[in-house]
Design brief:
Layout (H helix, E strand, L loop, with lengths): L8 H6 L9 E2 L3 E5 L9 E5 L11 H20 L6 E5 L15 E6 L20 H14 L17
Antiparallel strand pairs: 1-2, 2-3, 3-5, 4-5
Length: about 160
């Protein structure tokens, strides 16, 4: 099965069975350049626990991944590699084009003319939505959200932080 730890290249890397060029490592995560980058200095941030999907990663590790992604982004911008912008990317599930079923977070540099981009169909994507539909969608997701503090989700009126 594709989600099994036994078939996982990232588990092989973490456990020292496959070569890796480590950028950063701690008790929760490992950061390394991907073998098939969008552009030079494209990094992957991978939790050390085998977790096929985002929902399988604990909250503390997820927050740590975002914190490290910010630091990695700053390092890429300071590096000698061409970088006019940074993309963060997460593919969670087959429909999102996840290929390795061990959660991982991409941080990669972008520059004008790099040839990379997302394709979409204007007849299906980015179609203006009515306020009524947006309110319906917001309420549906709000009612399913599992957050410790629901106080920020009591109305559709934006709250000042």
């Amino acid at each position: 099965m594709k989600e099994d730890k036994e078939n996982c290249i990232f588990c092989d890397i973490i456990e020292g069975r496959s070569p890796v060029s480590i950028v950063y490592e701690d008790d929760k995560i490992i950061v390394f350049p991907t073998i098939e980058p969008v552009n030079a200095s494209h990094m992957l941030i991978v939790p050390k626990i085998h977790a096929p999907y985002l929902a399988d990663v604990d909250e503390e590790t997820t927050l740590h991944i975002i914190k490290i992604a910010r630091e990695v982004s700053e390092a890429i911008r300071k590096s000698k590699y061409q970088c006019e912008g940074i993309n963060w990317f997460l593919a969670d599930g087959e429909a999102a084009e996840q290929e390795v079923f061990h959660f991982h977070f991409h941080v990669y540099p972008r520059f004008k003319g790099d040839g990379f981009g997302f394709k979409y169909d204007r007849s299906k994507n980015f179609i203006r939505t009515t306020r009524q539909d947006l309110d319906y969608i917001a309420n549906e997701i709000k009612n399913l959200l599992q957050i410790n503090s629901k106080e920020h989700f009591t109305s559709n009126t934006p709250k000042k932080l």
